[in-house]
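Human:
Focus on the backbone:
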Amino acid sequence: MIRIIRDSLTKRDEIFSVKEAKTDVSATVAEIIERVRREGDSALYYYTERFDRAHLSSLRVSEEEIREATEATDPELIRVLRLAAENITAFHKMQKTDGFELRPKDGVIIGQKVIPVDCAGLYVPGGTAAYPSTVLMDAIPAKLAGCPRVVMVTPPSKEGKVNPVILAAAHVAGVDEIYKVGGAQAIAALAYGTESIPKTDKIVGPGNAYVAEAKRQVYGTVSIDMIAGPSEIMVIADKDNRPCDIAADLLSQAEHDKMASAVLVTDSEWLAESVARELERQIPLLERSEIARISIDTNGKIIITDSLEEAVEIANGIAPEHLELCVKEPFLYLEKVRHAGSVFLGGYCPEALGDYLAGTNHTLPTSGTARFSSPLSVDDFVKKTQYIYYDKNALGEVARDVEYFAKKEGLTAHARSAVIRFEDEAEAK
């Protein structure tokens, strides 16, 4: 049964208090990474046989396999994948930015170039956690950024096959290369490269504890999107909502995994108690009812506040991954939201809409990191390079200022580099 709290709480640890038995996998992951660095493809074949029970003749998914998978996929799913891809593309196109150039005075040019990374690596889980939506969310921003090479890794089945729906989504999203490898060994391959898999510049995508730890360990050699924690949702709702709708939205996250957190914040005691009853009615109806039950009982909460304004302040203190504003004037309260991964406005905007079809990205900051980080976007697949040009006269006007500044920092070589170009002229005078 979900816990109802009638006192206002503002501390994240008290609201999203995920109870998790942590297992230290760092040593195992470090060993896997080192073996892949040392042995390349042979290590990948070894770990794929050991962990996935698959004996492969080739790591790369062939064009024929992709074609067969796409043709075997339900045409209705292909239609929905393409619709989602269109929406994701339309939204993420707006994130694209160009560089700029300034000419503040004669002889001076300063600017910035926006350059895509050479190779983006996408990790896509397999098995029961095979989500084609994640393929679209990760690949499309990379392609829009202009990455010349987008590489995907995903674990195979025991038969050496990749989930056909994942391959169909990759085809729709325009992924360039797909490899049959998962786990920490896949992250190592993307970070360091092997005979078959190219070294990438950025690794994105969710995974289990081994994948998350591998991303942590290779960060610095390669960029990563984030170390994602358990999924979380906070719903702020007023009395005018139907309890069944709010309960369904909470359960949409609770069914993810046992550590997921679902929290309702409301100024209506009637709604709080009604949603609690509705959760009990809906949980047994779910295919993943056991997971949702543990999530709700362990990490779920309903908080009753004196006002909706107080509810928003709680949300700002928590910085939830998903925030639903199921209130009469959602855009009014949106202005007050400072920290959230993605905000869903009104009574007809369930979080699942953002997961699949609306076009916004569903790879979001968790564990309070929305206070300082952002959803996955085109920006994750580009870098910026500055440039400066001064002609002789322009440098001459400021050389002594540069010299003075550098000497104040005790860096005499810096200082000399600014004025040495004019010493002959000074001596001649």
